[in-house]
Structure formats: C-alpha cells, structure tokens
C-alpha cells in the first residue's frame, strides 16, 4: 500500500521551506513550539473578528504565517490573500494586532515585529481555497459544484494541477464516504515537484467534513 505522507514535510529542504525559523535548546523546544502556535492562533482569531464582510468569501484569507525568532526579536510575516479584508486603517490595525500578540506571548526582552505581505493570486493557495470551499459547503451548495468551482478558480492562477478530496457525511448522507477529483497533473512521488498542500476541517450541521487540497505549483 502507498503510505500517505504529508507532501510539505516530504519536500523540506528541496522545494519547501520551514514556516518557523528559530533555534532552541532541546529542553526549551516545546515551549517555543507552543509559543508559535499561540502566535498563529492569536493572529487568526484577530483577523476573524476584525475583518470586513465580503460577499462570496467568509474565510480569513491567510495563506500562511511565517515566524522567525532571534535573541531580541520575533519577526512574524503574514501572507494574506485579501488585505482589504483586514482593517481599514492598516497601520492602526497592525499596531493593535501587535499589542494582542505581545500580550499572548508575554515576552519581556523581545520585540515583536509584524509584517503583512500580499499574495498576487490568492486562489492558487490551498488554505484560501479550502476556506472558500468550506463557506460554500456550509451554505448547502452541493459538494460537486463546490469542487468544480474551486478548480475553475485555481485554473485562473496558472497552476499545473490540483486534487481535492472531501471525506465525511457529504451532503448530509447517513453513510460517510470519500469523494475526490483531480485536474491536471499532481505528481506526489516527485520530490522536485513543488506541491502546496493543506488539510482543513469543515464543521457543518450534519457533522465534520475533512477537506484535503493538493496544488501542483511548478517543477524545478
């Protein structure tokens, strides 16, 4: 049987970089890891609360959050698909966000610096696509229609292939099943191939659905 490995971890060091970049002694490693998790959750919650309502997209639009730690500085880079979803006065919003994260982390002797980077083609990123599909499925759109729509959005961003898999009580059926669809090439075995991946949990009224998206970006 083919063992399913996380495509991002599988490609670390070749086409994929770490999302957190810091060094710690073995005994302090778990503390640093929890700190990263806190920072990411805090940012997501803040954006969720303060974003502007936009028609057709209910997610937070964050593709990924990169964290770099030095002795006296924590540098956080937020890659966001729709910056206008974030607060109107960008600088005021970032300052407020910085205050929130600083409280959460409680680092006395380290400065916190948050930068926001805009993504050119947001629907080429699986996290943003997953949020879009989740909002569709919550609004009782049939899953096939949601999948096809997601693939259409991705095709506009010049990706070479996409695979989407949904598992759970699809369309509220009694028996859970797995459905998937693929468009283009998705060479999961090729380490040279840059593949972006995300798994996302969708909470619907019938129960929880698992959504996985693989996007074949480019080959080196």
From TrEMBL:
CDD domains: KH-II_30S_S3 (cd02412)
Subcellular location: Plastid, Chloroplast
GO molecular-function terms, A-Z: rRNA binding; structural constituent of ribosome
Segments crossing the lipid bilayer: none
InterPro entries: KH_dom-like_a/b, KH_dom_type_2, KH_sf_prok-type, Ribosomal_S3_C_sf, Ribosomal_uS3, Ribosomal_uS3_bac-typ, Ribosomal_uS3_C, Ribosomal_uS3_CS
Keywords associated with the record: Chloroplast, Plastid, Ribonucleoprotein, Ribosomal protein, RNA-binding, rRNA-binding
Subcellular location, principal: plastid
Family matches, as NCBIfam families: rpsC_bact (TIGR01009)
Subunit structure: Part of the 30S ribosomal subunit.
Family membership: Belongs to the universal ribosomal protein uS3 family.
UniProt protein name: Small ribosomal subunit protein uS3c
Annotated source species: Anthericum ramosum (Branched St. Bernard's-lily)
């Amino acid at each position: 049987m083919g063992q399913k490995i996380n495509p991002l971890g599988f490609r670390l060091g070749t086409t994929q970089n770490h999302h957190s970049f810091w060094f710690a002694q073995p005994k302090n490693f778990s503390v640093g890891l929890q700190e990263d998790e806190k920072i990411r959750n805090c940012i997501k919650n803040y954006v969720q609360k303060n974003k502007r309502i936009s028609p057709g997209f209910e997610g937070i639009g964050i593709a990924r959050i990169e964290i770099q730690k030095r002795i006296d500085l924590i540098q956080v880079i937020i890659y966001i698909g729709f910056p206008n979803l974030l607060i109107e006065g960008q600088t005021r919003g970032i300052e407020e966000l910085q205050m929130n994260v600083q409280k959460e982390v409680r680092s006395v002797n380290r400065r916190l610096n948050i930068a926001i980077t805009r993504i050119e083609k947001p629907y080429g990123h699986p996290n943003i696509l997953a949020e879009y599909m989740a909002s569709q499925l919550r609004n009782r759109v049939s899953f096939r229609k949601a999948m096809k729509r997601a693939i259409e959005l991705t095709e506009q961003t010049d990706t070479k292939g996409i695979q989407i898999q949904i598992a759970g009580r699809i369309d509220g059926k009694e028996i859970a099943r797995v459905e998937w669809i693929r468009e283009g090439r998705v060479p999961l075995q090729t380490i040279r191939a840059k593949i972006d991946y995300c798994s996302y949990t969708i909470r619907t009224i019938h129960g929880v659905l698992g959504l996985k998206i693989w996007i074949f970006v480019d080959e080196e």
